[in-house]
Amino acid sequence: MMLEAHGLTIPARLHDVTAQLGRGRVTAICGPNGAGKSTLLSALTGLIAPVSGTVTLTAQPLDQIPADERARRIGYLPQTAHVAWNLSVRTLVGLGRLPHRTSALEDARVIDEAMATMQLGDFADRRIATLSGGERARALLARVLATQPQWILADEPLAALDLAHQRSLVISLRQLAQEGAGVVLVVHDLALAMNTADHVVVLDKGRVAALGAPQKALSEQVIAKVWGMTARWLGERGHQALAL
């Protein structure tokens, strides 16, 4: 079951981008600033329409899938998510249940699970305006998890988190992938991508510069070509560090 980009072109952003993303694995989208990472993620959700090329979900064009079904299947966390009202954390997370037609009891169970996953059990009655940046980021991701999507697409979800919560989130996302979800993350930290992802897409100036297993897509040669830096990988798979 694939989420695929076929020759996507969005003027000044993406140029003939083709990539296959699979469920059951974590895919990292990497690249320098302005490479088109956030644009590709938005196109994969159907929020940006390409001028040419298509996005398909399980071989079906994304724009032909009804909006409510697409909302159930794809959970999206943008880089800067705006919350218009000063809701409680529990109410915000509960918005993830809107695409579903399930019982209040089932909704409550799923909301509790999503909050527990993001370590928000003690925050249920807190208002969004009172949260730190990291706490807010965790609440927004819990809303995505409450949708129980087949696909989780998140734009730099680790950026506002401290090290402990980064590690916890990575463990949770890998567990979701092992349970069959497709997890797609925009990340700047190449060591994180190398040690966490099963598959990497590297963009440069809106084009695919490399893709495949992390060892291939983030090789020292690719880093030199795309980021213009001489670097060496140290350590073993899963515990590698990038020496510049």
From TrEMBL:
Residues annotated as transmembrane: none
A Pfam entry, by short name: ABC_tran
Record-linked InterPro entries: AAA+_ATPase (IPR003593), ABC_transporter-like_ATP-bd (IPR003439), ABC_transporter-like_CS (IPR017871), P-loop_NTPase (IPR027417)
Domain ABC transporter: 3-230
Keywords: ATP-binding, Nucleotide-binding, Translocase, Transport
Superkingdom as given in the UniProt entry: Bacteria
GO molecular function: ATP binding; ATP hydrolysis activity
Described function: Part of the ABC transporter complex HmuTUV involved in hemin import. Responsible for energy coupling to the transport system.
Protein name per Swiss-Prot or TrEMBL: Iron complex transport system ATP-binding protein
